[in-house]
């Protein structure tokens, strides 16, 4: 194959890139972006290691000094060769995205159950929304978007069926083995239960991604002393912002709340005032959608503004310096108070709504009955869970099996387990 003039001219620059000054790197990256698809493919074929080298250099240019740079990763539990054009956190993101546990999030409800309609969020739609908010903030703050997205996609992967009532049921039945935490279970899923590779169990994610999820599993400890990576903190903030705004949307659409009731809250009044200033009067369904947008935008904008100002003093610091100094993201005092007011209101007016309680109680009863059936007869567990009994208590194994289920699959197995059949239940 005859090498194109563009690639021929560019090739010597690639070999000198590692120690090149910033100006040369910038020019090189601009040259790459100007190449046509055929020329870029030819370049990658002739210089297979350049993709990753350019990846590291582009992070050096685009990310803040205190961001978690891919070149600084502590690697994986099971060492693997580096990928020619994907950094470690991009690989983590893709592994999570393609996992079966991630796909099952589509069948797990966020707050409400499938018996109450199909409009409201599932764990999957919520996860994508969190990832979108988190990526946006990471880009503005010049943090690592790949790591942020991997953490966001993973953050709810350990949730059991039937929302928070499912977690309550499992926590009660697993009290003798330390209870149940969906954040800790997420680590079990990606480290042990996912079976996608011959060489090892789990997804073999980077140590930074695993450590970020471990922070979620131990929030009280992480709130003091050494701070988590900024990317980890950002996902936690995005989760909270998206969660509250989308619960407002779901509750309004289902008729559990009215705009007038919500307007009693300071943060909602602020959002409504912004909407009226921008758009004037609008139909109620459009007002609902605009309210969700403004609630998210209001909180994201202030967090980015406050954080940008705070981080300005740390330019040049390494991510380890930031963690050692205990630097943490936060909203301003006024918005923090308003957010607490909103969350308290949602807890009482939505999560304890009379229409929701009997549905949750019914789901909790089915999950509890299924747990008891399996405790009494462990041979009804799928084979791989029976095999895990060699290393773990039975209550933990039963809890893991149930926690991995979707809402519909749990109901299906409950019907099978409490019927006339006495055979093993299906694996997920």
UniProtKB/TrEMBL annotation:
CDD domains (alphabetical): HDc
PANTHER family recorded: DEOXYGUANOSINETRIPHOSPHATE TRIPHOSPHOHYDROLASE-LIKE PROTEIN, DEOXYNUCLEOSIDE TRIPHOSPHATE TRIPHOSPHOHYDROLASE
Name this polypeptide is given: Deoxyguanosinetriphosphate triphosphohydrolase-like protein
Every HD domain range: 123-244
Alphabetized SMART domains for the sequence: HDc
Family membership: Belongs to the dGTPase family. Type 2 subfamily.
Metal-binding found in the keyword field: no
Record-linked Gene3D superfamilies: Hypothetical protein af1432 (1.10.3210.10)
Keywords (A to Z) from UniProt: Hydrolase
